Amino acid sequence: MVVADDEFLSPEPEPGFYKALEKCGKKIGLECGESVVKAVLKDQDISKKCCVQLVHKMGRSCHEDLLWYLISQPKIGANATHVFIKGPQVYNSCVSKVGLEI
């Protein structure tokens, strides 16, 4: 998961946010990053492999930053309520799949 070129991004909510988000994306990889986004936005299932990456590599803080990024995008912002409800559900579901306490 790589953050798009600056010209296509909404203004950063705080300085360095996009750089931090890119580091988060590198922790989980493109395949699992896309899987997490699809799980949040399209209610698709996420594999145990990607759950391990999300919980053990990316972590809750990076996941929450991803959610903030998603709602900052004009096409997704209208679904902010869905993202804020589904995002934590996806993370907590992954925690259950990989057997780690929340």
UniProtKB/TrEMBL annotation:
<protein>
    <recommendedName>
        <fullName>Prolamin-like domain-containing protein</fullName>
    </recommendedName>
</protein>
<feature type="domain" description="Prolamin-like">
    <location>
        <begin position="23"/>
        <end position="95"/>
    </location>
</feature>
<keyword id="KW-0732">Signal</keyword>
<dbReference type="Pfam" id="PF05617">
    <property type="entry name" value="Prolamin_like"/>
</dbReference>
<dbReference type="InterPro" id="IPR008502">
    <property type="entry name" value="Prolamin-like"/>
</dbReference>
